[in-house]
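Help needed: design a sequence for this.
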């Protein structure tokens, strides 16, 4: 448990301009996604996500949504990518 809490749960934070969808879309939809890509952030999680690592995740997300950051780089969409997360502890989930 201690070893897992020392590892970062966030692998990367990317702009939607860089982290592109692999889904085939209509050209108009693709054009729209390119236009709003800078307003999208993708947070890629990895490993074990539990109470020991979620505080750092929360701090990172809060910094992305910070008012000073917001005026410079507004975010309209936030994507949490769990594809590399091995396990998620559910004790803290909403009831």
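Sure. Designed sequence:
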């Amino acid at each position: 448990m201690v070893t897992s809490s020392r590892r970062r749960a966030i692998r990367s934070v990317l702009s939607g301009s860089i982290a592109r969808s692999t889904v085939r879309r209509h050209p108009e939809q693709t054009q729209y996604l390119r236009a709003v890509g800078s307003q999208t952030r993708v947070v890629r999680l990895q490993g074990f996500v539990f109470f020991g690592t979620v505080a750092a995740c929360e701090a990172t997300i809060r910094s992305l949504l910070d008012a000073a950051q917001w005026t410079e780089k507004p975010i309209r969409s936030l994507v949490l990518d769990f594809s590399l997360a091995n396990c998620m502890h559910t004790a803290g989930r909403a009831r």
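The chain has one domain: 2-88.
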